Amino acid sequence: MAFHKLRITNQRSFSSETLHTSTQKDINPFQEARPEIDYICDNINKKLCTQMLELREMAQYYFDGQGKTFRPLIVLLMAKAINMHQNSTDIISQSQQQVAMISEMIHTASLIHDDVIDNSSTRRGKPTVDNKWGQRKAILVGDYILSVSSLLLAQLRNEEVVKILSQVIEDLVRGEFMQLGSKEEPNDRFNHYLKKTFKKTASLIANSCKAVAVLGNCNEDVTQRAFEYGQNIGMAFQLIDDLLDFTSHESIMGKPTAADLRLGLATAPVLYAAQEHQELNALIMRRFCHEGDVELARSFVAKSDGVYQTKLLAEAHSAAAIELLKELEPSKARDALEHVATLVLRRNK
């Protein structure tokens, strides 16, 4: 278990105190990008306005203004921040806005497909697409949204950006396949979980941030910082999401809690708990398929410091994201990105 102990030791250098001592601005990240987010949401619905009425209704179902718009927010703020760094202006180019649109469309298409795979009944507090229209149509509408996003990507006419964002789709598929498998060795299990988390969640944010940096003509160092900021925010976001599956209520989350366990998935709180309660390893290997396994796993997590260690790991990624911003020129967008890195730790849904 040396790998886990080393990881926990490293986490303790990134405590909550570290985050709170960083410069905190009285700034609302969403307000900093509100006009651009509104434009993107409206434009996505226009792009999905097909003459087939049922397909249009399904495609626009999650673009109803009720989503978090977390990914386009980060992409837009990153575009503003690097544009200020490069050219002393926070005006976002049309191509950078289009990347934010593509990011949200890829994310939403992946949610629709995930809900089919997971047989989920609710999403954002309402019936899932497949629950309302059936699995076959849900798969098709997810494919349709991806196809429209691919057309928008081609319109950018930038070969490097096309490669960057195409990597996201490959990562999503590979991450889903990784989620279907499991590792026998505990250390392999945690590495497997982290790699899967990057591919399923962090890759989209990281590569979208990288794409707007490329479109902003940034040098290699700034482009890499943009990528790593997105990577760390994505990892922190998913770790908190996995934590909330054990600590939040279904009415708050807008989707069933303990969902991962019921799907046979061992996330960070469970993997950390298994270090203290070896009995969990057998449950993990059989993917919590026996009657009472889910409840037993939850009880082991509750008796362990698995949730606490998961929070520490999320804090480490948040602190790393903040550190990466320090080389950028000061701006409201940079401050907003720093604030996002702390807000992601305080989310409750």
Task: Tag the structure with descriptive keywords.
EC 2.5.1.91, Polyprenyl_synt_CS, mainly alpha, 349 residues, 74% helix, two-stranded antiparallel ribbon
Please, could you describe this protein's structure?
It is built from 19 helices and 2 strands. By secondary structure, the chain is an all-alpha fold. It has a two-stranded antiparallel ribbon with strand order 1-2. A hairpin with a 2-residue loop joins strand 1 and strand 2. The longest helix has 30 residues. It is globular and about 55 Å long. Its main location: mitochondrion. Keywords: Isoprene biosynthesis, Lipid metabolism, Magnesium, Metal-binding, Mitochondrion, Transferase. Belongs to the FPP/GGPP synthase family. Its EC number is 2.5.1.91.
List the SSEs and their pairings:
Layout: H1 2-11, H2 16-21, H3 29-32, H4 34-47, H5 53-59, H6 70-87, H7 94-118, E1 122-123, E2 126-127, H8 129-133, H9 135-155, H10 159-180, H11 186-215, H12 220-247, H13 250-253, H14 259-262, H15 268-276, H16 280-285, H17 293-303, H18 306-325, H19 332-346
Antiparallel strand pairs: 1-2
Helix pairs in contact: 1-18, 4-7, 6-7, 6-11, 6-19, 7-9, 7-11, 10-11, 11-12, 12-18, 12-19, 15-17, 15-18, 18-19
Main location: mitochondrion
Protein name: All trans-polyprenyl-diphosphate synthase PDSS1
InterPro entries: Isoprenoid_synthase_dom_sf, Polyprenyl_synt, Polyprenyl_synt_CS
Quick structural summary:
The protein is mainly α and 349 residues long. Helices cover 74% and strands 1% of the residues. Helix 7 runs antiparallel to helix 11, helix 12 runs antiparallel to helix 18 and helix 15 crosses helix 17 (293-303).
